[in-house]
Specification:
This protein has about 90 residues and is an alpha+beta fold. It is built from 2 helices and 4 strands, in the order H-H-E-E-E-E.
Length: about 90
């Protein structure tokens, strides 16, 4: 009761997939708005999934409004993007 908890978020390693995702118009708009942006990069069977969120809301407040995701193919071309949680 009344205890504090902490979560450590690490900066992802520089990857071509992340650079490609960050250069999209959607990511550029999100990064202009976000105060504490954080990226998560995951390889998939069809390329890459990148999730960007603002850590101001990391504790769960309005996650569907404060995060975007992108799917890139193996050639690092944008396949899909959206707001909120990535599609499964």
């Amino acid at each position: 009761p009344g205890g504090e908890s902490f979560t450590t978020f690490y900066k992802p390693a520089p990857l071509p997939a992340l650079e490609a995702a960050l250069s999209t118009p959607t990511a550029e708009r999100f990064l202009a708005w976000a105060r504490f942006p954080h990226a998560e990069v995951s390889p998939t069977a069809n390329g890459w999934q990148i999730r960007l969120r603002d850590l101001r809301f990391a504790a769960g407040a309005r996650p569907r409004v404060t995060a975007i995701w992108m799917e890139l193919n193996p050639e690092l071309e944008l396949r899909a993007e959206g707001a909120g949680e990535p599609r499964r």
